[in-house]
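Possible race condition, two jobs.
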Amino acid sequence: MSARERIGGPLDRARHVMGTVADGVRDRWAGAPRWQRWIVYGLLLALAIVAPSPVIGSVMSPYTDWTSLLFNPIGTYILLAIGLNIVVGHAGLLDLGYVAFFAIGAYTLAYLGIKHGFTFWPTVVLGMGLAAVSGVILGAPTLRLRGDYLAIVTLGFGEIVRITAVNTNEIGGARGLTPVPHPPPIFGEEFLLDPLPYYYLVVAAIVLAIVFSLRLERSRVGRAWTAIREDEDAAELMGVPTFRFKLLAFAIGAMIGGLAGVVWAGKVIFIAPPNFPFILSATILAAVLLGGSGNLPGVILGAFLIAWLPERFRGFADYRILVFGAALVLTMALRPQGLLPSRRRKAEMADTGTGSGALGAEVADPTSAAPAEVTK
């Protein structure tokens, strides 16, 4: 027996076991009656409410303050991943500059609050609106591109926003802006440096984003995004206005990213351009792909793991990032389509024979032979 066969045998068995468990959970959930789903929703919400408990924190994060970790990065990453999943998972558009919309939301709160005395709640709406407009501005001239070309343009947009912030003195330049205003008290609870009220604020934002995303997914808009992701040319021939729906995906994803930026900035007090590096976009994209692009529960799970595991491995000191990277590599080797992919998305990835599937709506090689039939 060759070395490759000795390695491949256990790896294939592990992949099969992991796939069977994950697919069984997904299929059982898909066939569950509505009352069972509402019970699970209620239990998950109750778990989110009691999650800051010190008992849970002693197990989940023995090296870091658990409540602070729940707000950032866990809560922030989950909210960002929900927004990016609309662009990448639903519409199939590869966005490498998503951090730009996060920055726009954060700078909206900081600039309007510090320079013009705006309070928090009106700025939430303005930050989401400006981020959505920025998504339209980015998408309008670039969404004719596909695949790698679109990814390069979005990467450039993220860097443009960061460099513009560095060179614009009106918004603090390289020095940044401080003090970013806190949200006003809610039910007598002050938003100062205590991370607990911010955690509940980000939980409320995540719940709203989940409901909004699910409603979109099950609507005519969601079906149009699915058609575009599977085959943009065929969707356009069938009468789907592909450009309009891709632009809508960019705007909605950007809006949720702007919301995350506003909520995050209200806690950190000080923001500066180095807070918005390209690596943050790559990290959120990794969370979406790890969890299962296009499947909201999988995306949330992926974002949680990406945010939580480095802190849980903090006891390994200088080796924690190495251990974290090894865990990601092992997971993707065993489950390349993501931990909890949707059945439709899994079928698409199986057809392409790769872990990323048709991500980015790549254009087929015109010299290649067309398939004899299309399977459903």
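Job #2 (started ~2 s after job #1):
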Amino acid sequence: MSARGTTIASMVVLVVLAAAPFLSPLVHLDVSIVSEVLVTAIAAMSVNLLLGYTGLPAFGNAAYFGLGAYGAALSAKYFHVSFLLAILIGTAAALLGGLLLGPFLLRRRGIYFGLLSIAFGQVFYFIAYRYTDVTGGEDGMNFPRPPLGLPFANVTVNETAFYYVALAAFVLALLAFRAIVASPFGRTLVAIRQNEVRVRYLGLNSDRFIFVALLISATMAGVGGALFALLINFAYPLELDWHQSGYFVLMMILGGAGTVWGPLLGSAIFVIGKDIISTITPLWQIFLGALFVACVLGFPRGIVGTFSAVLRRRAHVADVDDANAAFDPHAPVEVGRGV
């Protein structure tokens, strides 16, 4: 797809998202479900940066997601901060988690990176599970949704207002993500995924690039986690569990690893599919798993990735046909006309 076509498609998606609170009742979806799609899309985007672009198995990003959720929940419950400040505190908690875990993960590659990230995530999970006096333990913790936090008005955040806050956060995360992956830094991450040894031979310290990518990923996951906790007014240990990390990876693969819009589409399929199937049967995970297998078999690069590859292939074929049409081997050749 051309740059103009991509821009038009992106604008159409954003217009649909802006009208989602008015469109969702027409398809019998609560606006909170659409908010959850945006929130989890931000978290899936964080996985996409590490796994889709850098090639690192980010199987422990639920640790940062859960830190963001608990950072927002604890600050709202015990310190009575505003809505926006709770998001900032949750994001800062996730970033701090990335700073703590990053040095331990930098020297690991492949499956060892993934296993170590899962292990650290489980450490945070058991802390939240056992520290019942503060976190509520296995039962989790309820807290009231704080006011928005504007300087001169005490504005409550209802479901529609929350959706537009989540939409603003998603758009900012999307713009930042696109700028990152299109920059020389993002191209270096792709080069690390393809051949890290060659990147090192070029004189670049790949560990530094990976560390910065890890911090960006943790920050984005923290934003998603803080918004998710404020969406459901609840924080619980399973937000830190490795199963949650698996869901984020699943969303990214469904939409398309290494694509900008893939996490949003994968999140929409997962969240809406879970909501619909779970109302029909308690065995929703089996049917959602079957849907995942079908998508992987039918769209090996993810839905967005597969369609993008098809469009690029068609554009290439069209260019070749135009070039062949411009060159006619049977046309007479005029000689002797030059100087």
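The CA atoms of residues 210 and 314 lie 35 Å apart.
Logs attached separately.
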